[in-house]
Amino acid sequence: MLFKFVATVGGITAISRVLGFLRDILMTAFMGAGMVADCFVVAFKLPNFSRRLFAEGAFNAAFVPLFSERLEKDETAEGESLPNSARQFAEESFSVLFMVLFAFVGLVEIFMPWVMLVLANGFADQPEKFELAVTLTRITFPYLMLISLVSLLGGVLNALQKFAAVAATPILLNLSIIGGLLALDPYVPTAGHALSIGVTLGGLVQFLWLWIALRRMGIGLRLRRPRMTDGVKRLLVLMAPVALGAGAMQVNLLVDIIIASFLPEGSLSFLFYADRLNQLPIGVVGVAIGTAVLPMLSRQAAAGDDASALATLNRGLEIGLFFALPAAVALMLIPDQLIATLFERGAFSAEDTAKTALALAAYAAGLPAYVLIKVLSPGFFARQDTKTPVKISIIALVLNTALNLILMGPFAHVGLAMATAIAAWANVLMLAIALHRRGQLQLDDRLKGRLPRLVLATLAMGIALWFAAPLLASLYQLGEGMRIGATALLVLGGGLVFGLAAQLFGALRLSELKPLMRGSSQGG
User: Fold this and answer.
1) Which residues of 371-380 are buried (b: 16+ CB within 10 A; e: fewer)?
2) How many CB atoms lie within 10 A of CB 438?
3) H or E stretch covering 67
4) Which residues contact 33 (CB under 8 A, 6 or more apart)?
5) Domain residue limits, the chain
6) What's the CA gap between 262 and 416, in Å, rounded?
7) Global pTM?
8) Is residue 139 a contact partner of residue 200, using CB atoms and an 8 Å limit?
9) Closest to 316 in 3D by CA, of 379, 246, 248
């Protein structure tokens, strides 16, 4: 069952990431890695940070267990799609969230110059750059409210184990941003303005998409008079610390932006484009597993089925590592080839490629940790424990900040990526130890047997890429077509070697792919 749900979310998310790369390719071609790009990175990071934190983290982690608890305990009345208590809780949460966010967005829009002094203080001595960053962020900031409401609607669907519509929402965002850039660029001052408008329109489209999906299921949530009921209070109590607990990596990335604003021009862009590529396996695998595991663990925990909860967590770890380990090795071994193929055109130069590739290799060292955080965090959230993850996230955040300040001197922007990777591994280690001490994380025999085999298969792929990359290097000087072909050979060849090695060493059996493929084709 977990394979099916992960395949549904992961498959749709993969489509979104492909569109995301098309978006990034257009961004690099239109903006390169200069002042406008740096300003848009700041403007986009704030709502994008909210998307990852709320849609894939805090709100989902707090709302789904409480909503699932009501689904588990209360019976659905005849002719109704939801138990009354579950519907009432969702409507009360929606109303309070809407009121709070509307007021918050309005205040931040008014005081945006002061917010920017915190978010990108390094721009303060460059008036033109600072003003552009303020303008673009004002355009994108309403997305925070929209994506938070989208998260609530998505939480209802996820709790009902209807994952497909929610997983498709990033596709709509990418289409809106691409459409905004292509349609509006000739009519606005910079490409950054066109992209920013596309972001906010994308949030509106996502909201309408999920609202319609719920209506088709007979679930029409009403906007009630906002009231702080016991259920809403419990939601807010759980949600506040989870905003750090589930989003430790995202908070670390936000810290990177603040510090990177003091580095030479282009540093923010190098980190942004590197992180975009690094986010592919995190989004396809980590978010998919976290989204699928949380409702399952929530119901198992509510029913007191500890054995099933332990098995669910083990399978999540197995799936996550199976995809994350080879992806991390590949991104560390061939970052230049990947960045050059995807982004090196238009305003994006060979020098930009080299600097972005270094950041990508550093980020990739922590890729398995980023995925494991998504897998382990639901182990706490499903049991409505948010205090432990937030304590761990604060420690990781302090470590990341300290390492940023230490490493940015000798390594510039690459040092920030290195610090993020190290902090992510520290986060994983602390999460795992906390769960293990409670008896909620024990590696079963299947996972223990497969981990060394998975490492061997990944090592075989790494050796193949190590020798193949220099052999194909000359093709990168023969035009874009040959460059794309050479990179495709490296990626497909590396994937083939890993797949064959995984079969040979017993890291995965072909029979186990059948439920994965069925889940992918059936949807959620």
Assistant:
1) bbbbbbbbbb
2) 13
3) helix 58-73
4) 266, 269, 270, 273, 347, 348, 349, 352, 356
5) 2-442, 443-519
6) 12
7) 0.70
8) yes
9) 379
Distances (CA, A) of 103 to 96, 98, 200: 11, 9, 17
Residues in the chain: 524
Other Cβ atoms closer than 10 A to 496: 12
Write the CA distances from 302 to 168, 289, 381, 474, integer angstroms. 29, 20, 12, 59
Task: Assign 95 to helix, strand or coil.
Answer: helix
Q: Give the pLDDT score at 205.
A: 95
Question: What phi-psi label fits residue 433: left (phi over 0), alpha (psi between -120 and 50 degrees) or beta?
Answer: alpha
CA dihedral 520, 305, 60, 258 (to 10 degrees): -100
Q: Which helix (H) or strand (E) holds 119?
A: helix 112-119
Instruction: Determine contact, residues 376/370, Cβ cutoff 8 Å.
Output: no
Q: What is the CA radius of gyration of the chain?
A: 22
pLDDT at 456 over 50: yes
Which residue pairs, CB below 8 angstroms and at least 24 apart, start in 520-523? Answer: 520/7, 520/8, 520/10, 520/11, 522/4, 522/8, 523/8, 523/12, 523/164
Q: Which residues contact 75 (CB under 8 A, 6 or more apart)?
A: 83
Secondary structure (DSSP) of 292-345: HHHHHHHHHHHTT-HHHHHHHHHHHHHHHHHHHHHHHHHHHHSHHHHHHHHH-S
Would you tell me the crossing angle of helices 35-50 and 248-260 to the nearest 10 degrees? 160
Is the CB of residue 101 less than 8 Å from the CB of residue 238? Answer: no
Which candidate, 155, 159, 39, 59, places its Cα nearest to that of 101? 59
Contact 141, 46 (CB under 8 A): yes
* 480-522: pLDDT as tens digits: 889 899 999 999 999 999 999 998 998 876 555 444 334 333 3
- Which residue type, as a one-letter code, is found at position 204? L
The CA distance from 354 to 327, in Å, is 20
Type of residue at 463: I
Phi, psi of 79 (to 5 degrees): 85, 0
**145-173: pLDDT as tens digits:** 898 888 888 878 877 777 678 878 888 98
CA 44 to chain centre: 14
